[in-house]
Design brief:
Largest sheet: none
Keywords: Cell membrane, Membrane, Transmembrane, Transmembrane helix, Transport
Number of domains: 2
Protein name: Binding-protein-dependent transport system inner membrane protein
Helix content: over 70%
CATH superfamily of the largest domain: MetI-like
Order of helices and strands: HHHHHHHHHH
Subcellular location: Cell membrane
Number of helices: 10
InterPro entries: MetI-like, MetI-like_sf
Main location: membrane
Length: 245
Amino acid sequence: MYRGVLPPLVFGLALLIVWDLAVRTGAVDTFYLPAPFDIARHFVDELLHGDLLRYTKQTVWEALAGSGMGLGVALPLGYLIARSDLAASALQPYLAASQAVPAVALAPLFALWFGYGLLPFAMLCALLVFFPILVNTVLGLRSLDPDVMGAARVDGVGWWGMLWYIELPLALPSILTGVRNGFTLSITGAVVGEFVMGGEGLGQLLSVQRQEADTIGLFSTLVMLALLAACFYGVIRLVERLVQR
């Protein structure tokens, strides 16, 4: 346990010490890089007395909606590609090509097509969530032991029983890895959407702070984004551990 916890804690502490010394000695101007303590104090103050929580709730809602949409499409499509050579041949080139289109380029189109409500933000998040889940679902299903599958068919297990009792449990670790990575990226999708389309989340807050040259505010918002991504990652990781028991 300590081997897994101590190294990142020691490294983080050393990084903060070097950072603080660089600011205190004047090697770096506080306008460009505020002191860690000042950022922490501003973060707590905004959390307790400012609007940071309100912006955060909006971003979380967009990320969760997009994650649900991406998950709902990626799982069945991943199963189809893994189990149908025809579907794999037809769809994989287009899916690979879609990853070359940056999300920020699609945001204006989504705003044009769907307006400025929750839907365009959720769809942008879904695009980032979709691919990691799809790839890991296909990988997990294709890597199943063919002997186990064959034995189940000999025993008369039907399609639904095969999926529910054999394929899904055996492929679940790989699928959850994709879900973990995808859900973490959903925060990025929400922020990118708010940069381009506006909104009321953390991306919009970053835009305002950038225009006002509020460096310490920018760092506080980035801390919140990092915490959100870590929370998403940690929750899915906890689910993985519970499933693997």
